[in-house]
Amino acid sequence: xxxxxxxxxxxxxxxxxxxxxxxxxxxxxxxxxxxxxxxxxxxxxxxxxxxxxxxxxxxxxxxxxxxxxxxxxxxxxxxxxxxxxxxxxxxxxxxxxxxxxxxxxxxxxxxxxxxxxxxxxxxxxxxxxxxxxxxxxxxxxxxxxxxxxxxxxxxxxxxxxxxxxxxxxxxxxxxxxxxxxxxxxxxxxxxxxxxxxxxxxxxxxxxxxxxxxxxxxxxxxxxxxxxxxxxxxxxxxxxxxxxxxxxxxxxxxxxxxxxxxxxxxxxxxxxxxxxxxxxxxxxxxxxxxxxxxxxxxxxxxxxxxxxxxxxxxxxxxxxxxxxxxxxxx
Length: 329
Description:
Order of helices and strands: HHEEEHEEHEHEHEHEHEHEEEEH
Mean pLDDT: 90
Helix content: 25-40%
Number of helices: 10
Shape: globular
Structural class: alpha+beta
C-alpha cells in the first residue's frame, strides 16, 4: 500500500484554488470599511474549497483567534480525508484592514507540510523576526545586533550597506529596530499591515527588498517560514511576550522565550507547499480585478522539494463561482 503520510504530488496546485476562491470572495469588500465582512467572505470561500482538496489536513495555524473574528480554527480537520496527512497553516485574508480601507497589499495564503512538522506557537501572538532571500541564507543571526545583520546581508549580496532595503511593520514596538536600521545607514520601507507577504518579498528576487526585520504575528511567521523554505530563503524568529500573562503562558507550555527559532525549527522537513493570491494589488501580487464576465487573479504557488515557483494569472468566470460569495452583488 502506498504511504499516504508524506505528500508525493504537488498539492500546491490544488491549494491555489483555495486561495483564489478566498481572494475573489474577499475582494468584493475592498474599501467598504468592514473588516469582519471581508474576513467572513474569505473564510467561507476558503473552507468550501478546502473540502475538495485530496488531503487529510489539520489546521495548526488558524485564522482569527486573536481578534475573535470568523475563523478556520486550530484543530479543524480540512480536506476530503483522502491522500496525505498534513499540517495546514491558513490566513484567508492577511490584511483585513487593508481590504476594508481599500489599501494595497492584502493577500490570501495557505501552507501545508507533512503532519507534525509545522511549529505551533500556541497563544503567543507575537514574534521577533528576520527574513532574507537565497543569497543571504545562513549568514543571519537574530540574536546579533541589527547593524551586524545588515552588514552581513550587504556583503552576501555584494552591495553597499546604504543600498540595503529593510522592510518593517510600522508599529511602536518596532521603533527601536527602525532606529537601529537608520543608524546602520540602510534604507527602510515601512508597511502598515501584512508582514507575512513582506517576509516573502524579502526572499523574492526583484522585489526591491533585501531583508525583513521586526516584531509581528507569530502565525504569520510560520507561514512566512514555509514560503521562504520553498524559495531557498532564510528565516529566524523569537517569541515576543507582550506582558506577564504571556510569560506565564509560555512557561506553562515549556516555551523558551530566549530561543532563536530557525527556519527548520518552524518548518521541519523538506516537502512544504505554499500558495498565495492577491486580494488588493501590492508589491508581491496584483489584486483581484472584476470583469463583465468574471474576475482575474494573480497567485504564487511554491513547493520546497522541487524549488518550483509559479506565478499564475487566472481568469475566473461567474458561472463557475456561484455560491462563493453573494455579498455586494
